[in-house]
Amino acid sequence: MNKNRMIVLENVTKSYGEKAALQGISFDVENGELCVLIGPSGCGKSTTLKLINRMLEPDGGEILIEGRSVRDFKPELLRRKIGYVIQSIGLFPHMKVSQNIAVVPSLLKWERKRIGERVDYLLELVGLDPAIYRDKYPNELSGGEAQRIGVARALASDPPLLLMDEPFGAVDPLNREILQVEFLKIQRKLKKTVILVTHDLDEAIKLADKIVIMDMGRIVQIGQPENILSKPANSFVRNFVGTDRAIKRLSRFQVADYMNRASSTTIRRLKESNYKEAASRRESRFLWITDEMGILTGWIDFKNFKESDRLEEGITHVDPSNFAVRAEFTLKESLSRMLSQGVRSLPVTDEKNRLIGEINLSTIEKLTELEE
Amino acid sequence: MRRMRYLGWISVSIQIVLFSIIILHMKLWESFLGFIFGREEDIIYPRAPLSILVGEHLFLVIVSTLLALIAGTLLGIYVTRPRGRDFLTIVNDVTAIGQTFPPVAVLALAVPIVGFGAKPTILALFLYSILPILRNTVTGLENIPPDIRESAIGMGFTGLQRLLRVELPIALPVIMAGIRISFVINIGTATIGAVVGAGGLGTPIISGLVRNNPSFVLEGALVSAFLAIIADQFLAQIERAMRAPYERALSS
């Protein structure tokens, strides 16, 4: 057996009375992989999740964690080794934040000192100041804070596996985006094996290493998000991912991987003070202008620039933080910015607004070509 | 908010001190009741001092409420567990009968079996007070949000750990409210114990009725009413303190 496979489901079936909820589900999740189960309500995605930590028992098939059947473990002991986050989070209202996070470590009878250190570490990990939040009660938290605590609690005993049932579903859209980004950062750092259930396709595309699309108790397609978007297996998936899948797919790609670096010769740039050079670079139409520190200040379009004009008059000055994109932006965001600015290429800047490269519409266009 | 709680305890303490002074100093009673009824006849029930009557009374109420507390919470826990859920309706019905059955009738039926005295009275009070405690235990446990139960299961609590560490602490203020209701009602109801010789504050009331002496009746009635008011406030304070800090945080 492949050692890398953390979770294996083999032909798992489950029915509630007459109604078949799962009709033979098989997939596996590799160590450190973030697998998203997605599909319309009633497709069996939450049922699948609950079978893994034995909140439900399957009627048939086999579920293996690290090569061992989940039936080999006592349910309670199994669950203590698996982080679990639900949509409504379910923090215990009578316990302080620190006690909530410490639940599983104290069930596992960790020493008090170790638990305290772990709680502080986790609060910092999810971006909350331990000194402020340790002694708060859940009803003193905002939805976003409670969700962060929920994640910290699930990670408390450092389980290798995390099950998340619509973890960001109850948070408002703005905070959801922030939490998703933060969760991705945590996940890149900790490399947990995560199985996440959602009905939000954008969330799945943003987070998943692998997407499992389900419908009516069956798996319809398994694959990387970009592959599912470019090659939907059938009309159900095509409808499910929507007609804008070409654009959705762009959110899988980062500017950093597709930009022309400032160090390459193809990029045209000029220090504002260096007027003489402008003439020699005139063969190309656009020129990014920076100051002495390399900070983007504007651009020149030589199409409307006459020999007699002074260079300063040809410069279109821009606010770099609004105009340029950053290396960590997705191509979807870049495209949106290009369209709203009405340009075919955009400068890429670092966190100090220094020009580090350029991203072109033609590059993005190539990525949106899909196979039908 | 914190200040308010503090004031609550002070007010209850003052009332308890005042109450103790009144029942321990019979002269005060004598002059008060004498002022109302004139001095010619017996003013104060002569056969027992008030402190003894209050002691007997509290004994009846505390023992019966404690028994009801044990039986009510255990039954309440049992019928909300998966294996006891089938009994929820029947237990509710039986305890409802216990409450609708008049305590006097319970006394009448119990005396031939257990004899006169405190025993039949405690039995009647016990049956009478088990329902509020049971009902509140069931309500408190049933009203725990399903997501809290689900996350407790998902984190690996055993059934008993879940009950003791999550469900009972959350339900505790509601259970306490049931105890308070039972206790206060029992203070009033326990006066009938005097009919079967259980003593308590019913004794001067019965005696006053028999001897046509309203001053005796007033003595027993006023003191038991006062006792009920103080007990109610005292238990309400405990209940408030139990409404764990999380609820205070919300309201402050």
Write the SSE topology.
The complex is a heterodimer of chains A (372) and B (252).
Chain A: E1 5-16, E2 19-30, E3 34-38, H1 45-52, E4 60-65, E5 68-69, H2 75-80, E6 82-86, H3 97-101, H4 103-107, H5 112-125, H6 130-133, H7 143-154, E7 161-165, H8 173-190, E8 193-198, H9 201-207, E9 210-215, E10 218-223, H10 225-230, H11 235-241, H12 245-250, H13 255-258, E11 260-261, E12 269-271, H14 275-280, E13 286-290, E14 296-301, H15 311-314, E15 315-317, H16 320-323, E16 325-326, H17 331-341, E17 345-349, E18 355-360, H18 361-368
Parallel strand pairs in A: 3-8, 3-9, 6-7, 7-8, 12-13, 16-17
Antiparallel strand pairs in A: 1-2, 1-4, 4-5, 9-10, 11-18, 13-14, 14-15, 17-18
Helix pairs in contact in A: 5-7
Chain B: H1 2-24, H2 26-37, H3 50-80, H4 88-100, H5 103-114, H6 118-142, H7 146-154, H8 159-189, H9 202-210, H10 214-242, H11 245-251
- Mean pLDDT over the residues of chain B: 86
Relevant CATH superfamily of chain B: MetI-like
Q: Detail the poorly predicted runs of chain A.
A: none
* Overall tally of domains of chain B: 1
Pick out the low-confidence regions of chain B: none
| Order of the strands making up the biggest sheet of chain A | 6-7-8-3-9-10
* Separation of the first and last Cα atoms of chain B: 6 Å
**The top level CATH class name of chain B:** Mainly Alpha
CATH topology of chain B: MetI-like fold
CA radius of gyration of chain A: 25 Å
**Which CATH class of the largest domain in chain A is shown?**
Alpha Beta
Radius of gyration over C-alpha positions of chain B, nearest whole angstrom = 21 Å
CATH topology of the largest domain in chain A: Rossmann fold
The description of the largest β-sheet of chain A is: 6 strands, mixed
Structure summary, number of beta strands of chain B: 0
Structural class of chain A: alpha/beta
Tertiary shape of chain A: globular
Structural domains of chain A: how many: 2
Which second-level CATH architecture of chain B applies? Orthogonal Bundle
Beta-strand segment tally of chain A:
18
Q: Given the helix and strand composition of chain B, which structural class is it?
A: mainly alpha
